[in-house]
Design brief:
Number of strands: 21
CATH superfamily of the largest domain: P-loop containing nucleotide triphosphate hydrolases
CATH class of the largest domain: Alpha Beta
Strand order of the largest sheet: 7-8-9-3-10-11
Helix content: 25-40%
Structural class: alpha+beta
Number of helices: 10
Strand content: 35-45%
CATH topology of the largest domain: Rossmann fold
Radius of gyration: 24 Å
Distance between the termini: 34 Å
CATH architecture of the largest domain: 3-Layer(aba) Sandwich
Length: 357
């Protein structure tokens, strides 16, 4: 088993609908991330896939097997899944070996088989030499790897991860991202991963499901989600982006708050629009479509994070860190806009960008 089919999954607690009509297929061997702000419904969706919550309506299939829907409900222990939680949930009084062995012990598997499977799982997670240690003798990252080894020891058909890295420091989080992705590729296992961290989602996923207010906003590859967002919320939630009012006509978009400077536009939207520009797509150039005054710059080592004033508007520009040596606050600059996204201005932008729980 590797495929998960969600058919019109809805979950309500009383009158509060927390997951709304999710209808998607997660393919075998795919790494899918459920991404969204806190309280958007992503963990509830994961718990329904795991069997810890029942949908109010809809069906869940593992391959062609109905595990939840109508009168059918397969409990978590019967679904053949591995799950890792945010708080690791390793037992402090058990050794690493016994923690990892626990899922097999409660199945009353023969001791020799348990030993073999545990050794394989510990080796996979580079934990062999820690087998007889207690969790309190390990670092946070090592404890997280113990939780992963325990989730994988029974060779599950599906691995579910609920914000597993949120308690780790930044450097350890980064290394664990690559560790989990390596693991998934090595095993060819299907992974569903919950996070609110956009960088994690971009780095690890084959596809991202962006969720807000219980509804699926967009499903696609990281590149599709980042470069072709279907609405302003998706554009705003994934990465850095600024929105500017514009008027589209005759192949150009005029920006009233930027001294009526304009951008060339070959799209089809006309009239009142919003131009959405990611700061890395603003490039300092000898000649560009926009001109303004460099107001501030913040040297961050690898990048120079700048603010350029154009009329009544501050435009964010993120450029190479070396630019800091050659730029002076107060100087006039030209900006080439490498790429931008255009949305119709229907008056809903402010409401759409609000994060509601």
């Amino acid at each position: 088993m590797g495929k998960v089919t969600l058919k019109h999954i809805t979950k309500a607690f009383g009158e509060s609908v927390v997951v709304r009509d999710i209808d998607q297929v997660i393919r075998e061997g795919e790494f899918v991330t459920l991404l969204g702000p806190s309280g958007c419904g992503k963990t509830t969706l994961l718990r329904m896939i795991a069997g810890f919550e029942k949908p109010t309506s809809g069906e869940i299939y593992f391959d062609d097997e109905l595990v939840c829907g109508g009168k059918t409900f397969l409990p978590p222990e019967k679904r053949g899944i591995g799950m890792v939680f945010q708080n690791y949930a390793v037992w402090p009084h058990m050794t690493v070996h016994d923690n990892v062995a626990y899922p097999l012990t409660i199945k009353k598997m023969p001791k020799e088989e348990i030993r073999k499977h545990v050794e394989e799982s510990l080796e996979l997670m580079h934990l062999e030499k820690y087998a007889q240690r207690l969790p309190g003798q390990l670092s946070g990252g090592q404890q997280q790897r113990v939780a992963l080894a325990r989730a994988l020891v029974a060779k599950p058909r599906l691995l579910l991860l609920d914000e597993p890295l949120s308690n780790l420091d930044a450097k350890l989080r980064e290394s664990m991202r690559f560790e989990i992705k390596r693991l998934q590729k090595t095993l060819g296992i299907t992974v569903i991963y919950v996070t609110h961290d956009q960088t994690e989602a971009m780095a690890m996923s084959d596809r991202i499901f962006v969720i807000n207010r219980g509804g699926l906003q967009q499903a696609g590859t990281p590149e599709e989600i980042y470069n072709q967002p279907v609405n302003p919320f998706v554009a705003d939630f994934l990465g850095k982006i600024d929105f500017f009012k514009g008027i589209s006509e005759n192949g150009r978009i005029t920006l009233p708050d930027m001294e009526n400077q304009s951008l060339s536009y070959i799209g089809t939207l006309a009239g009142d629009v919003y131009v959405a520009i990611r700061p890395e797509n603003m490039i300092f150039a000898e000649s560009g479509e926009l001109s303004g005054i460099l107001e501030t710059q913040y040297y961050l080592g690898d990048v120079d994070d700048c603010r350029v004033r154009i009329g009544d508007t501050l435009v964010r520009v993120i450029t190479d860190g070396y630019a800091y040596r050659n730029m002076q606050e107060g100087q006039k600059v030209q900006l080439e806009v490498r790429d931008f996204i255009v949305f119709k201005d229907d008056g809903s932008l402010e409401e759409m960008l609000k994060i509601k729980t």
